[in-house]
Amino acid sequence: SLYKVIGFFVFSLCFARTATALSSATQMPLQMHFVGNGVESQEYVVVLLHGLDSSCRTWKSTLEGLADAEIPAVAVDLRGSGQTPMGAVFSRDQVVSDLDTFLLQYYPRRTCILVGHSMGGRVAMCYAAQHPQNVAALVIEDMDIGQRRLIDSSTLHMTPKQLLNFDRRADNSNDILERLMEAGYTQDMVSGWFDGGRIYRRNDGSWWSDVNPEFRCVCYREFCDNSVGVDAWTAIASKINVPCHVFVASTEGTICKEDSIQDMVRIFDEHKKSLSLHHFTKAAHSIHNSAPTEFMDTLLKIIAPV
Question: Do 89 and 23 touch, CB atoms closer than 8 A?
């Protein structure tokens, strides 16, 4: 295909764009950044949602693999992550509205195969619960439905108020390093993000962090430290009649709790629905990057019947 490319930087330049998502709650436009793989289809699209401290860049190999298989796919930067701004309001309904508006704008009359990694899995659950008619298949990558409290997260030690309007732009690399370390990230973590491309120098000479500790904080508030996981999953079980899959990383790599995974199975059983569990015994939390071949093979099998 003319649209297939070699190398992510060329890939990004060709297919990275911004979409204007109009919130129904605030009526404030938001420029959502996304990267597509250039494959077109009038039937469906694979939508890839990243987790905390991440961006659409995490899906580089997945986008390329799906392009090779001639399957349309797009990865988005959620509100407050990657190159998408936080906007005036961050709420669960706002994030779901962002995604719905984006899909209506760029992929009208097409269903989506929704793949959410970690916190992106919670977003995917909430979207599927609110818009079941738009989902052709649901894949939750290494996320359960249990309550998770910010206070139990050892990553951040700044308060939500201190993280408000966290500035991800800096004039030099030391400034961005110091800000992220002040928020609670270790020097090794931040250094790894420089090496891995989550922090980079932009064309205007400034430095930018795709990682946003404010995003982490508000996601815990909206998606984790409550009953949202259970509520959304129960709604999905009652409304959706499409394939649903949960990918679980290795015992050492997973963040999922076994009792919560069993709750997911039980809720589907109670609604007489089938849930497919896939265990990736050698994968870290980011299954799509630590076990890319097995991840892609499994995903392609899920997509094939759609």
Answer: yes
Q: Is the pTM of this model over 0.85?
A: yes
Lateral strand order in the sheet of 199-201: 169-170, 207-209, 199-201
Q: Band the pLDDT of 23: cuts 50, 70, 90.
A: very low
User: Cβ contacts of residue 283 below 8 Å, gap of 6+?
Assistant: 249, 250, 253, 290, 291, 294, 295
Show the tokens assigned to 61: 């190999």
- Tell me how far apart the alpha carbons of residues 18 and 84 are, in angstroms, rounded to a whole number: 8
> With helix as H, strand as E and coil as C, how does 132-187 read?
HHHEEEEEEECCCCCCCCHHHCCCCCCCHHHHCCCCCEECCHHHHHHHHHHHCCCH
Here the tokens at position 218 are 């508000």
How far is the C-alpha of 300 from the C-alpha of 294, rounded, in Å?
Answer: 10
Q: Alpha-carbon distance 152 to 164, whole Å?
A: 20
99/116 Cα distance (integer angstroms): 12
**pLDDT tens-digit map of 46-103:** 999 999 999 999 999 999 999 999 999 999 999 999 999 999 889 999 999 999 999 9
Residue 119's nearest CA partner among 216, 51, 218 is 51
Torsion over CA: 292, 302, 9, 168 (sign): negative
Contact 211, 193 (CB under 8 A): yes
Cα 101 to Cα 95: distance, rounded to the nearest angstrom: 10
SS3 for 238-256, per residue? Answer: HHCCCCEEEEECCCCCCCC
**How far, in Å, CA of 173 to CA of 160, rounded?**
24
Q: 125 vs 131, 153, 188, 237, 301, CA distance in Å?
A: 10, 22, 32, 11, 21
CA 25-112-197 angle, to 5 degrees, is 80
